[in-house]
Amino acid sequence: MSNREQFKKIEGEDFFEFKNFQIRMPCYFHRAGRLILTHGFIKKELRIRPEEIERMKRIRDEHEKRT
């Protein structure tokens, strides 16, 4: 992606986030270069809440088990 303000790596994680105003959509790269969006949330603070990071990981793990 060329717009680093709308798409960037989440620090300390294997996830990226796509941003559109206050809405955040965490994602990760799957096999064959597929981009998987985990969920969306409204970010009101400077940092991503730990609950959202845990949710990202849980959704990724569930998806990996099914595929």
List keywords for this structure.
67 residues, alpha+beta, 5-stranded antiparallel β-sheet
What's the gist of this structure?
The protein has 67 residues and is an alpha+beta fold.
Plain-language structure description:
There is one protein chain. This protein starts with 6 loop residues before the first strand and ends with a helix. A hairpin with a 2-residue loop joins strand 2 and strand 3 (about 25-30). The protein has one domain (about 5-65). The longest helix has 17 residues, at about 50-65. The protein has one helix and five strands. Strands 1, 2, 3, 4 and 5 form a five-stranded antiparallel sheet that branches. The chain is of the alpha+beta class and about 70 residues long.
Strand-helix topology:
Layout: E1 7-9, E2 16-20, E3 23-29, E4 35-37, E5 41-42, H1 50-66
Antiparallel strand pairs: 1-2, 2-3, 3-4, 3-5
How does the overall form come out from the CA principal axes?
Answer: globular
User: Gap between N and C termini, in Å?
Assistant: 25 Å
Helix content: 25-40%
* Share of residues in strands: 25-35%
Query: Mean pLDDT, rounded to whole units?
Result: 88
Q: Structural class per helix/strand content?
A: alpha+beta
Largest sheet: 5 strands, antiparallel
Stretches where pLDDT is under 50 for at least 5 consecutive residues are: none
How many separate domains? 1
Number of helices: 1
Radius of gyration: 12 Å
Order of helices and strands: EEEEEH
Number of strands: 5
